[in-house]
Sequence to fold (78 residues):
Amino acid sequence: MEQMFKVVAEVEHYKNFVPYCKQSNVTSRTHDHLRANLVVGFPPLVESYTSSVKLTPPNLVKSVCTEGKLFNHLLTIW
Fold:
């Protein structure tokens, strides 16, 4: 569980292994929350958005899209 939490919580590395993730930049981080700007897609469809991510080690990562044009609602829970 701890290993999976660590992989999912390190949003800044998504661009290295998540399919279609072009950029992943963490703009702020505390022990239980982070904000990240992400760019996903494949040409010609590319979308950038901001995620607000709640971190509850070692068993919860909850991400909500807060700024984006493509998604009306995007919620990811690990």
User: Anything to note?
Assistant: The two ends are 11 Å apart (CA to CA). The helical segments are 2-9, 14-17. The longest helix spans residues 2-9.
